[in-house]
Amino acid sequence: MFFFSMLQIWKDVGFYLISTAQCKMMPLDFVFVIDSSRSIRTSDYEKVKTFIINLLRFLNVGPNATRVGLLQYGSVVQNEFTVMSMKHLATGTMTGLALQYTMETAFTEEEGARPEELLIPRIAMVVTDGRPQDEVEEVAAQARQAGIQIFAIGVGRVDMNTLKAIGSEPHSEHVHLVANFSQIETLITVFQSKLCERDMCEVVDHQCQHICVSSPASYRCKCRSGYILNPDGKTCRGHSCIQEVFGLVLDVVIVIDGSKSLGPSNFELVKQFVNTIVDAFDVSRTGTHIGLIQYSTKVRSEFSLNQFISARDVKQAVSQVQYMGRGSLTGSALRHMFETSFSPGEGARAGVQRVSIVFTDGRSQDDVSEWATKAKESGVTIYALGVGKAVEQELKEMASEPKEKHLFYTEDFGKMGEITEKLKDTLRICKGTSLNNMCLYFSLTCSLEALSKKIQLLENQNIRK
Fold first, then answer.
1. Strand locations in 108-246, DSSP E?
2. Could you give the CA distance from residue 57 to residue 66 in angstroms, rounded to a whole number?
3. Which segment of 250-259, 348-357, 426-435 scores lowest on mean pLDDT?
4. Average pLDDT over residues 1-17
5. Which of 87-96, 244-253, 270-279, 356-365 has the lowest mean pLDDT?
6. What is the pLDDT of residues 232-241, one digit of tens each?
7. CA-CA distances (angstroms) from residue 229 to 140, 201, 210, 232, 236?
8. If DSSP codes are grouped into helix, strand and coil, which group holds residue 244?
9. Sign of the CA dihedral 173, 175, 179, 185?
10. Where does 22-75 have alpha helices with state H?
11. With 50 as the cut, is the pLDDT of residue 78 above it?
């Protein structure tokens, strides 16, 4: 396991798991993330290895103390099991990829990280000498939001704004820039001081409403189960419509009606609706995956489940979807969803709950019952959303049981708020349902409420005109 590999690292440099730390430290889960790009000279690469070894001298490493992992990156990310045997990759500088690997793989329990409920601080120390060849700001923000405290060390001509995009706040404590690799050793005493500091939750007036989690040179507030942290970073609240459903892992295929009865302007509203749904989920490599198909006379896969791993990319793809504007073969769309969209080739994952949200505004020109039934029997949960001339019987044939929790209808786009109210009623009586379904009801309520507000705004703008 990744975090226990440090036993071998310590043996290689002449140490053992018996602590040589000169200060009392709290246990940490600590990962070194080392730039191994071609811009680093061989002699400088060796200085980085020496820096790691010297930093390890005062870390209290052990299964019940600080667990340490090591990875390096160039064009790829590579696990390392010993410091001394690290070989210079001398390739690109995919810092964003390394941060994503750190968040999604290195800090998992499978790799040796301790469970989050133990409140062990998770520390990533990134050492880099160049400009990243990929995006770092978003993935670094996701890592910090996931509770990883990031120290960013830049050497040479690294852009300070890039380091600040990576490092945690306050930047004065977490972002460091030295002129060359010979000077990186000067940071040893700096980090020894930081890592040896007292429990920050005891030192400062943290004002955390629920739980204070101390970490080197910093702290963060955490909420008890069933609550989420407010934007102030200190107080907590129960679930509300601005909550994102983090931790909910689903494969979601959204099926949208692109028939001519809809019209271009309403189709744009449907796209907005889709994006509000996307905002409700934790779209990531290990979280929820979303696919989209549009249908009219034909069925068109706009993007598959395995095509995008961020909400931003999904929403951008939705915004580029072109209106088909022809017939309405809902049954064919359901068949495509069942046979193709939820296939392994399209990215459907084994053991992950499958959900389809079907949006229609009129009568189907083919049978919907057969393929809706096959999909549901295979384990797909179907939510049927109807507007305007959508036929109630067809919506019932598509929706999962119980119908009153999976079927929603309103007369026109201007009355989408009616669907919102029905979903709110569902929330009040769904205490006996599973957590995943509860979260999905909740997220759909939020999405529809947000869309209702957008529609109302457009109507008010039209009135002013």
1. 122-128, 148-155, 175-178, 211-215, 218-222, 228-229, 236-237
2. 12
3. 426-435
4. 41
5. 244-253
6. 778 887 644 4
7. 19, 17, 10, 8, 5
8. coil
9. positive
10. 42-56
11. yes
Query: CB neighbours of 416 closer than 8 A, spacing ≥ 6?
Result: 387, 410, 448, 451, 452, 455
Higher pLDDT, residue 214 or 432: 214
Number of Cβ within a 10 Å radius of residue 461: 9
| Distance, CA of 396 to CA of 403 (rounded, Å) | 7
Could you tell me which residue, 36 or 278, shows the higher pLDDT? 36
| Burial (0-12, 13-18, 19+ Cβ within 10 Å), 433 | middle
Q: Indicate the residue type of 86.
A: M
> Which range, 201-210, 260-269, 313-322, is most confident?
313-322
- Distance of alpha carbon 446 from alpha carbon 453, whole angstroms: 11
- Strands 67-73 and 29-35, how do they pair? parallel
Q: 200 phi and psi, to 5 degrees? A: -65, -25
Q: How far apart are CA 133 and CA 97, in angstroms?
A: 10
Q: Is 195 within 8 Å of 60 (Cβ atoms)?
A: no
Which tokens is 47 given?
A: 């200085």
Amino acid identity, position 165: A
Chain centroid, CA 170 distance in Å:
23
Cβ neighbourhood burial of 415 (10 Å; 0-12, 13-18, 19+): middle
* DSSP alpha helix (H) spans, 64-136: 95-101
Q: CA of 163: how far to CAs of 93, 102, 125, 152, in Å?
A: 14, 17, 12, 6
- 3-state SS, residue 263: coil
**280-295: per-residue pLDDT in tens?**
778 888 888 999 999 9
DSSP assignment letter at 251: E
Nearest CA to 328 out of 289, 368, 355 is that of 368
Distance between CA atoms of 13 and 74, rounded to whole angstroms?
25
Q: In this structure, what token pair is assigned to residue 207?
A: 């004002």
Q: What percent of the chain has pLDDT over 70?
A: 78
What the block records as the tokens of 258 is 């692109």
Cis-peptide into 170, omega within 30 deg: yes
Number of residues written out for the chain: 465
300-329 pLDDT, tens digit each: 999 999 999 898 899 999 999 999 999 999
Angle in degrees, 0-180, between the axes of helices 264-279 and 311-319, rounded to the nearest 10: 180
Contact 294, 324 (CB under 8 A): yes
CB contact at 8 A, 293 and 300? yes
Spatial separation of the C-alpha atoms in residues 382 and 369, rounded to whole Å: 12
pLDDT for residue 422? 52
